Amino acid sequence: MEVSFGGFQVVVLAAFLVVTAALVGVFVLVARQARRNVAFEDVTDTGYRLRRVWLAFLLLLLTSGVVLALFFLPYPGAAQGTATVRVSGGLFYWSMNPETVSAGSEVSFEVTSADVNHGFGVYDPEGVLIGNVQAMPGYTNRMDLTLEEPGTYMIACLEYCGFKHHEMLREFEVTP
Ligand SMILES: [Cu+2]
């Protein structure tokens, strides 16, 4: 049997050995320190001091992070408006209101069914499935999607619901 080492394995081995050596070093250091007699207060005082410094550092980091992040508002990619689209599935159709939304909107699809369970699947203009939620009778499921790209989206039923299930296709326009 031939054994070969790739470059990656060698790197992993080297990293493993370095980490192991560091851990052994820490253990040896702790073991040697443990021989000394140290007063309890010396240990706790140092610990509390470190903890106060760490807390102050974290507070500073958090506060400055929050303040700095305010300058970037509104964050790029944030929705340019919201829309609620009421969707109802039935044997064998989709009804949607409104029938179009504008690109960049954060759309809340409120999905229900007039009869049996359907699957509300949303495909983007490239035909990629971007969302799927159950359409259930007597219940409204909410699905939030940000539709960035203008174009013709496709709605398809993704839950087998009857003999014309495959005809439950519908187009949905996202206007520029
Ligand atoms: Cu179906």
Explain how this protein is built:
The protein has helices at residues 7-35, 40-70; strands spanning 82-90, 93-97, 100-102, 105-113, 118-123, 129-135, 141-147, 151-157, 169-175. The chain is of the alpha+beta class. The chain starts with 6 loop residues before the first helix and ends with a strand. The mean pLDDT is 90.
Task: Characterize this entry briefly.
The chain has 2 helices and 9 strands; from the N terminus they run ααβββββββββ. The protein has 176 residues and is α+β, with helices and mostly antiparallel strands.
Uncertain stretches = none
What percentage of residues falls in helices of 4 or more residues? 25-40%
**Element pattern in H and E:** HHEEEEEEEEE
CATH architecture group name of the largest domain: Sandwich
Average of pLDDT:
90
Number of helices: 2
Structural class: alpha+beta
Question: What is the CATH H-level superfamily of the largest domain?
Answer: Cupredoxins -  blue copper proteins
Unique ligands? copper (II) ion
Give me the count of strands.
9
Main features:
single chain; 176 residues; alpha+beta; Immunoglobulin-like; 2 domains; 9 strands; 34% helix; elongated; binds copper (II) ion
Task: Describe how the helices and strands are arranged.
Blueprint: H1 7-35, H2 40-70, E1 82-90, E2 93-97, E3 100-102, E4 105-113, E5 118-123, E6 129-135, E7 141-147, E8 151-157, E9 169-175
Parallel strand pairs: 1-4, 3-9
Antiparallel strand pairs: 1-2, 4-7, 5-6, 5-8, 8-9
Bound molecules: copper (II) ion.
